[in-house]
Design goal:
The strands form 4 sheets. This protein has an 8-stranded parallel β-sheet with strand order 5-4-3-10-9-8-7-6. It has a 3-stranded antiparallel β-sheet with strand order 12-11-14, with no helix packed on it. Strands 1-2 form a two-stranded antiparallel ribbon. It has helices spanning 32-44, 57-60, 81-88, 95-104, 116-125, 140-148, 162-175, 200-208, 222-229, 256-273, 325-328; strands spanning 5-7, 10-12, 19-23, 49-54, 108-113, 130-132, 153-156, 180-185, 212-216, 234-238, 293-296, 311-314, 332-333, 341-342, 348-349. By secondary structure, it is an alpha/beta fold. The chain has 11 helices and 15 strands.
């Protein structure tokens, strides 16, 4: 494992610009043309990658409508799992074409496999990396299959305890995964910013030593931007052409203009994160003059003592540093000094018994 991974020729990790993934999910609404338009719009909005999901209703569940298979307490209230997945899945026959479109635009196309047959399919079409969803981060056989491909893996951490994640990471490593990233994720749809717990990003980085990112389901752009400021190397965000179009994921997806706003803010956060720095920097050179320094504020004649009445620490910053005031007080002027003159050592008579100036 290293502190960085590479997908599609892009190095991802600390010190690099955040890798931003537009999640298509079910927002194609079962239209290939719309799926193609989403890929193109993601490119225009600034994304680095487009992400699909590779499953069918039958690879995820069974067609059953008893109480165990009905959804409660979410956007998809009272649907059966089979109904939801039938509405949301991306037909597999589309995916090679979508990859061709994405690659032609300079976008990486990756996907989330939900069973071993999906991993084989994605390997056949040549995805550059695999994504593991939060709901599958405890599926040990799937993790073994994904890890055995040797491709970079991006693992969402939603609902997993630290022990769960240690098991998942160990499984991927022992299966052959050498490039791994983890995404902090809150598996609620939509998620509240109050539940984002972005401080976990730093802890995940310290614990696992791999790039950490965010898979975000909040409504808006503030949380992913904050995540990048806190060190996130990857941002995954649902993307749609319009939230007015009905779809299982539209409520927590960004429209193109919003995604562009997020991208611009993320890039600002990339730059603003910077490095540990103290003291002034080049950009502050012109501002340095507005710091306080020692000035003569009353006319002083040669031989007259400097006092708190005729010397003050004021703006601008052309005079001696304020730390020298104790050495100045009681010393005498070496010449006549007019009010408004910055105090320098040349204006101080240093031949007498007064204290020597400090550094």
């Amino acid at each position: 494992m290293t502190g960085h991974i590479t997908i599609g020729g892009r190095r991802i990790g600390p010190g690099e610009p955040a890798y931003v993934i537009a999640e298509m999910s079910a927002n194609h609404n079962q239209s290939l043309d719309r799926a193609v338009d989403i890929v193109k719009a993601a490119k225009e909005a600034g994304a680095n990658a487009i992400k699909l999901q590779t499953y069918t209703p039958d690879t995820l569940t069974i067609d059953c409508d008893n109480e165990y298979f009905r959804i409660k307490g979410t956007l998809w209230e009272d649907k059966t799992l089979y109904e939801l997945y039938g509405e949301a899945y991306t037909p597999w026959e589309w995916q090679p074409e979508l990859m061709e479109v994405a690659n032609g635009l300079g976008l990486d196309l990756i996907s989330t496999p939900f069973d071993e047959t999906a991993v084989d399919f994605l390997e056949d079409i040549g995805v550059p990396a695999h994504k593991v969803a939060s709901f599958e981060n405890g599926d040990i056989p799937l993790l073994q299959k994904v890890g055995s491909t040797g491709k970079p893996v991006i693992l969402s951490t939603g609902m997993a305890s630290l022990d769960d994640l240690e098991e998942a990471v160990a499984t991927l490593r022992s299966s052959g995964c050498r490039e791994l990233a983890l995404l902090k994720c809150t598996s609620a749809y939509p998620a509240s910013p109050a539940d984002a717990n972005l401080q976990t990003i730093r802890h995940l980085s310290e614990t696992f030593g791999v790039p950490i990112g965010l898979s975000d389901h909040t409504q808006g752009i503030a949380v992913p931007v904050a995540a990048v400021a806190l060190g996130a190397s990857i941002v995954e965000k649902h993307f749609t052409l319009s939230r007015n179009d009905p779809g299982p994921d539209s409520a927590f997806s960004l429209e193109p203009h919003e995604f562009r706003q997020m991208m611009d803010a993320v890039r600002d956060a990339d730059v603003a994160r910077g490095k540990v720095a103290y003291g002034s920097i080049d950009a502050e050179d012109e501002s340095r003059v507005f710091r306080r320094s020692l000035f003569v504020v009353q006319d002083v004649v040669a031989g007259e003592a400097f006092t708190l009445q005729n010397v003050r620490a004021i703006r601008p910053g052309y005079g001696l540093h304020t730390r020298h005031l104790p050495h100045i007080l009681g010393s005498k002027a070496s010449r006549d000094v007019h009010r408004g003159t910055p105090l320098t050592w040349e204006l101080v008579d240093r031949t007498g018994p007064s204290p020597q100036p400090g550094r």
